[in-house]
């Protein structure tokens, strides 16, 4: 792992110059290292809220549009706890299972003010980097032949979640197996996010079409950290 960890397995910033070159950001940009952001203390999760499980499954759907209204702190807190919150602290186990209890998947939260990583042990968001990178991580693809041009007023979600698996946390296995386990663990966490949103009226979709190279540069990921999925999350438009 490069750099100093905010908590186990989380990289912090090394060289801002290299990032500015990779991202095409000028030296006058307001983007800065994560230490300039403060820790976001999350509310205790409300475990009694939402539709029953079978109702949530029945209404789960992938969203394509969102309101630009920011998530409340309670909604953000509950979302992250549902995704991978500590529900059995004596065993260091969470709402999302992971192979070998490796806790290989990190939840990065892209907000307007900066990027944070979810610390499931303390139920808080730790700063990674300041600056708004929510649009920067999206994959820009040419429209399909005959497709209707995208509505220029279309609003992206106010929160962009990126799920990253760190294969180095698995105690054994080949590189191929570790990659497979990471993909499975990410899928489990992704479903937690989707079902929580369905149960509480939030909107999301699992999405792989993001600029993974840019995400790796923004987060300064190393060769064992794999970007798998993006979940935009917000309220109905």
Give the helices and strands, then pairings:
Layout: H1 16-23, E1 32-33, E2 40-41, H2 53-59, H3 73-84, E3 86-88, E4 93-94, E5 105-110, E6 114-119, E7 124-130, E8 159-166, H4 175-200, E9 203-204, H5 212-219, E10 225-234
Antiparallel strand pairs: 1-7, 2-7, 3-4, 5-6, 5-8, 6-7, 8-10, 9-10
Could you characterize the architecture of this molecule?
- This protein has 237 residues and is an alpha+beta fold.
- It has five helices and ten strands.
- The strands form two sheets. Strands 1, 2, 5, 6, 7, 8, 9 and 10 form an eight-stranded antiparallel beta sheet that branches. Strands 3-4 form a two-stranded antiparallel sheet.
- A hairpin with a 4-residue loop joins strand 3 and strand 4.
What are the defining features of this structure?
single chain; 237 residues; alpha+beta; NADH Oxidase; 8-stranded antiparallel sheet; two-stranded antiparallel ribbon; 5 helices; globular; disordered N terminus
């Amino acid at each position: 792992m490069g750099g100093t960890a905010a908590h186990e397995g989380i990289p912090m910033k090394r060289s801002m110059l290299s990032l500015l070159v990779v991202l095409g950001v000028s030296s006058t940009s307001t983007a800065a290292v994560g230490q300039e952001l403060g820790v976001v203390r999350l509310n205790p999760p409300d475990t009694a809220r939402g539709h029953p499980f079978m109702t949530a499954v029945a209404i789960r759907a992938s969203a394509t549009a969102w309101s630009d209204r920011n998530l409340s702190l309670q909604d953000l807190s509950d979302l992250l706890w549902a995704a991978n919150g500590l529900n059995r602290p004596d065993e260091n186990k969470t709402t999302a299972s992971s192979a070998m209890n490796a806790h290989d998947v990190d939840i990065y939260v892209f907000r307007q003010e900066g990027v944070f990583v979810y610390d499931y042990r303390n139920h808080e968001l730790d700063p990674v980097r300041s600056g708004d990178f929510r649009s920067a991580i999206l994959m820009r693809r040419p429209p399909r032949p005959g497709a209707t041009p995208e509505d220029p007023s279309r609003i992206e979600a106010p929160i962009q979640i990126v799920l990253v698996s760190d294969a180095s946390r698995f105690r054994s296995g080949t590189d191929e197996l570790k990659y497979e386990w990471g993909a499975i663990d990410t899928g489990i966490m992704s479903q937690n996010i989707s079902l929580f949103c369905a149960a509480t009226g939030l909107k999301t979709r699992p999405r792989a079409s993001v600029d993974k190279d840019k995400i790796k540069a923004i987060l300064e990921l190393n060769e064992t950290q794999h970007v798998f999925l993006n979940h935009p999350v917000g309220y109905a438009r």
